[in-house]
């Protein structure tokens, strides 16, 4: 996981699923921490790579269609089966005030994502998030991205939420990318990108902690990225599956295979997307019915003990 800029004091790398910037620096090198299938990385203090371009590259129409229109048959065939890697489901959260956002005068459950572009675990998790959220609404201005070239699982191909927007009649989504994937020589970290709002920072400080994340084993894991709060009903900290599954593949190769239920990488993405979908269906009161009552989502609900 990785740690994020929610806590500016501690700038750290991506930990199998933590906000970039909450980890303590390790003298030299990268430390991998494996917690229930989620890997957490600590940033290397070695020489930074050459500064890369910050140009935003929007996702092309073909790729956008492939990731947002996965056939229902694929979701149902895959279910929660993933031979390529273990899948980690969102954790239930109870007794907390609803997290909502007013959109066009209507109060909708809010899904808050906090990550960073350098983070390979965020890179893997965005595949899950985009595929799952596309079952409830539509992304606009999603961008291509890849994780840091000098981090573990270097150059993992993915997307960025830095300029994206999302529309849905059921839920609201907010994505914050706290750091770029461009090393900053003056800090031995990465250049900052989007600053968290006070509300986003409060969510991370409260919920991205040992108290609420059952897989955390020490306070050092507090503030890990990627962190996702699903309406204060479910929490996810870390990647749902290992970024290693995406090694050597382009966005186009991964996206084009999403129509093939026998593809191992597709199975990892779809299995985790079904589990995220099951959690989101709790927020939407099982709407849309066609999605929330599908065989793949039912399998996820059963595994997650969701009624």
What would you say this structure looks like, in words?
With 307 residues, the chain is α+β, with helices and mostly antiparallel strands. Helices cover 26% and strands 21% of the residues. The protein has one domain (2-45, 57-304). It is built from 8 helices and 16 strands. Strands 4, 5, 6, 11, 15 and 16 form a 6-stranded mixed β-sheet that branches. Strand 2 and strand 3 form a beta hairpin. It is globular, with a radius of gyration of 18 Å. The two termini are 30 Å apart.
Arithmetic mean of pLDDT: 86
Q: Please tell me what the overall shape is.
A: globular
DSSP strand content: 15-25%
Specify the helix fraction band.
25-40%
Which structural class matches the secondary elements?
alpha+beta
The N- to C-terminal Cα distance equals 30 Å
Q: What's the total count of β strands?
A: 16
Radius of gyration: 18 Å
Number of domains: 1
**SSE string:** EEEHHEEEHEEEEEEEHEEEHHHH
Low-pLDDT runs = 4-53
Name a few traits of the molecule.
307 residues, alpha+beta, 21% strand
Write the layout of secondary structure elements.
Blueprint: E1 2-3, E2 32-35, E3 38-41, H1 61-68, H2 72-78, E4 91-92, E5 100-103, E6 106-115, H3 120-133, E7 138-140, E8 143-146, E9 157-160, E10 165-167, E11 172-177, E12 179-184, E13 189-192, H4 198-207, E14 224-225, E15 227-230, E16 234-237, H5 251-256, H6 264-283, H7 289-292, H8 295-304
Parallel strand pairs: 6-11
Antiparallel strand pairs: 1-14, 2-3, 4-16, 5-6, 6-15, 7-10, 8-9, 12-13, 15-16
Helix pairs in contact: 3-6, 6-8
């Amino acid at each position: 996981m990785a740690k994020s800029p929610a806590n500016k004091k501690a700038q750290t790398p991506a930990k199998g699923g933590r906000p970039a910037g909450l980890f303590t620096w390790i003298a030299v090198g990268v430390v991998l921490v494996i917690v229930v299938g989620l890997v957490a990385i600590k940033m290397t203090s070695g020489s930074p790579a050459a500064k890369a371009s910050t140009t935003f590259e929007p996702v092309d129409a073909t790729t956008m269609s492939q990731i947002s229109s996965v056939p229902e048959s694929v979701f149902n065939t895959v279910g929660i089966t993933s031979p390529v890697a273990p899948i980690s489901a969102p954790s239930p959260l109870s007794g907390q005030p609803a997290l909502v956002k007013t959109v066009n005068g209507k109060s909708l459950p809010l899904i808050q994502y906090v990550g960073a572009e350098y983070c390979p675990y965020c890179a893997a998790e965005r595949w899950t998030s985009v595929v799952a959220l596309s079952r409830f609404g539509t992304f606009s201005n999603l961008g291509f991205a890849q994780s840091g070239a000098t981090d573990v699982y270097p150059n993992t191909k993915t997307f960025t939420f830095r300029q994206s927007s999302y529309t849905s009649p059921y839920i609201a989504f907010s994505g914050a990318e706290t750091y770029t994937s461009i090393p900053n020589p003056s800090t031995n970290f990465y250049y900052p990108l989007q600053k968290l709002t006070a509300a986003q920072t409060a969510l991370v400080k409260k919920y991205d902690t040992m108290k609420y994340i059952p897989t955390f084993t020490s306070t050092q894991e507090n503030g890990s990225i990627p962190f996702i709060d699903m309406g204060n009903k479910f929490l996810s900290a870390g990647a749902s599956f290992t970024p290693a599954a995406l090694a050597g593949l382009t966005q186009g190769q991964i996206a084009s295979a999403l129509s093939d239920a026998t593809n191992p990488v597709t199975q990892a993405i779809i299995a985790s997307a079904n589990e995220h979908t099951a959690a989101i269906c709790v927020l939407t009161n099982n709407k849309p019915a066609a999605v929330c009552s599908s065989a793949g989502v039912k399998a996820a609900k059963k595994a997650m003990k969701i009624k």
